[in-house]
């Protein structure tokens, strides 16, 4: 597959159980713009999830942000996480989930652009 979006390799975007990848192009263009402005790497730990995989790992069952191709989880912590959240809000990401406790490699910021009337921030 040809690389479509700078900074984000196919292996980070595909479903880990089936290899499918249906990321939304508008979402990904926003994510690329966010990455360019941030000026630092943020590895994606979860992007597209097929309904079966989402059901096995998320309380959202067979549906949820990741099944739409409009969501990613980024492994990040500390000052970089705070900067990412600030920039993501300015770039119009309207779903931001924050997990910044426990093992360093499990600390993430979730970003999505679901159809919401307002921005929502939550913690895990």
Which short descriptors sum up this protein?
Muramoyl-pentapeptide Carboxypeptidase, domain 2, alpha+beta, 31% helix, 5 strands, 124 residues
Question: How would you characterize the overall build of this protein?
Answer:
The protein is an alpha+beta fold. The protein has one domain (23-123): 2-Layer Sandwich (Muramoyl-pentapeptide Carboxypeptidase, domain 2), CATH 3.30.1380.10. It has helices at residues 10-13, 25-38, 51-57, 78-90; strands at 44-46, 71-75, 95-99, 108-112, 120-123. It has a five-stranded mixed beta sheet, covered by helices on one side. Strand 3 (95-99) and strand 4 form a beta hairpin. The protein is globular and about 35 Å long.
Summarize the structure.
With 124 residues, this protein is an alpha+beta fold. The protein has 4 helices and 5 strands, in the order ααβαβαβββ. It has a single domain (23-123), classed as Muramoyl-pentapeptide Carboxypeptidase, domain 2 (2-Layer Sandwich), CATH 3.30.1380.
